[in-house]
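Q: What structure does this chain adopt?
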Amino acid sequence: MREAQQNQLLLEAPDGLLAERAADGDIDAFEVLARRYGPLMRVYAAKLLGSDVESDDVVQEAFLTAWRQLDHLTEPQAVKSWLMRMVTNRAIDRMRVRKNHDDIDDYEPPTRSSDDPERLVEAKMQMQALSRALTNLPENQRQAWVLKELAGCSYGEIADTLGLPASTVRGILVRARKTLMHEMEEWR
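A:
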């Protein structure tokens, strides 16, 4: 019973406390952080890289690095931004290394067998248009848009992840949205 209570307390603990405990070698605290932010990190990496397989590798690398460098984290309460920044850096490293990287256009959204074929074709064409529009965005705009719209990050979290002031993030997102709205006009 006592162990179950401790596990529940750990699950409800704030990020800062978990990061501090993990920095002191508490594997259970680190596991809670990994379960809390792993899915978000994976989705973000997959959108940046266009590959689920590579995103898993990037997230795993980020967690390994995080475990080794937790004692260097100066603001434990900002562990989410710190982890997202690690994923961003690992993903960028991967994109630099590969010469012929997979294009986001290769992404095929999952479909249900009950969908109408015409609707499937239209949805695929719309996703391809969005993928092209995202690919054509400048790197910082694409990263900020993915963090905001797909990962649900706040402006502050995006600013921390990208190492930019929040006011700059707002401007970047305005430009990204404006460009995407223009590019996607025919799909409205």
